[in-house]
Amino acid sequence: MDFLTLPDAARLRLENVTLPGCLVGGLGETMPGTLTIAGGEIVEPTVDDTIIDMAGAMVLPAFIDMHTHLDKGHIWPRAANPDGSFEGALSTSGADREANWTPADLRARMDFALRCAYAHGTRAIRTHLDSLPPQDAITWPVFRELRAEWAGRITLQGACLVGADRIERDGAFRSTADCVAEAGGILGMASYPLPDLAERLRSFLRLATERGLQVDFHVDETMDPSVETLRLIAETVLAEGFDAPVTVGHCCSLAAQDAARAGDTLELVAKAGLNVVSLPMCNLYLQDRMPGRTPRLRGITLVHEMRARGINVSFASDNTRDPFYAYGDLDMLEVLREATRLGHLDHSAPDWVQTVLANPARACGFAAPSLAPGAPADLVIFRARSFNELFARPQSDRIVLRDGRAIDRTLPDYSELDGLFAG
């Protein structure tokens, strides 16, 4: 059989596949197995199955990407980061937002990114959306339209993104919170040191409580060890008794802190039940960048230490071809491969694959990925027969099944966006 094709059959039994042990009750990293597909679901085998020998091909459930920025995506041709710094990213993306983020511009770039993610095998995405007025009134309607259009292919969640200095209980952010609640979104903010940050965090959590919203923070995206807003977030969540899901992203400064201090903060994070999402590719790009000097630090947060404390840890794409990250394509296999290399996930626990499957599903409230009978046959099939083979190559010839049928994996051409960058 040509690996790139599967026969069109009412019942298809894939024999001799490789499955992650953590998804099928195994103790090791992988184990051999069989999957039968009928009616868009994984089912029990019968004598009526069309049987295909898959030669050890690895099968994963479709991916979940829980931290992206679809609204910023693919602006690099007109808004390149001038020096690769975090400050350069902030200023360049802000200027581009004010000048160019019309409904038509947003729709074209966001839909392009979603088609990429879909072709790579992603079924659910949370995206942060810059929401300073008047941008919130422009972006959220576009997001809601795309969420409806993509329903059944990619489940979309939206989280507002507003800096901590704009968070006021009785200020303009109240209207933003209402907008988010009306759209069924997540209340989000970027935290950084401010003299009154504790009060702003309390106001933020109370606004979320009043509207029944989850919250999602950008946290400590710096290698400055003195920056500890993560610690304050955990303390405030505990003090307020906030019981909706809380996600914290980045948490880079932990990796530069004294081990004892970082460990103490992680105990608070565990006690508060925070979900952590690490963005390894973007943080590697931005952090510890200095002209004429080789970077010493990777920017990845303390994922091993978090895991040891029972903290729910995920990995995600973050930015794509914009001033915060010049590369990427919303390919979650690439994210997991780079996280494995950068974070030394190998020679470690056998179930790190859950950081792009069950862990983000639990953090966001998406349906849990499964390979059990009754689960949707939303699968990604790779020629690789082991995780070593999986991470050694890009796996560009993967098969993506949705509802048990192979999708067209043709990626959109960058030339589609040329009209956005003319003039």
TrEMBL record:
**Any single Pfam family the record assigns to this protein:** Amidohydro_3
Start and end of every Amidohydrolase domain?
199-405
Entry's InterPro entries?
Answer: Amidohydro_3, Metal-dep_hydrolase_composite, Metal_Hydrolase, Metallo-hydrolase_Enzymes
Task: Establish whether keyword Acyltransferase is in the entry.
Answer: no
Q: Which Gene3D superfamilies match?
A: Metal-dependent hydrolases (3.20.20.140), Urease, subunit C, domain 1 (2.30.40.10)
Annotated PANTHER family: CYTOSINE DEAMINASE
* Name of protein: Cytosine deaminase
Q: Which organism is it from?
A: Rhabdonatronobacter sediminivivens
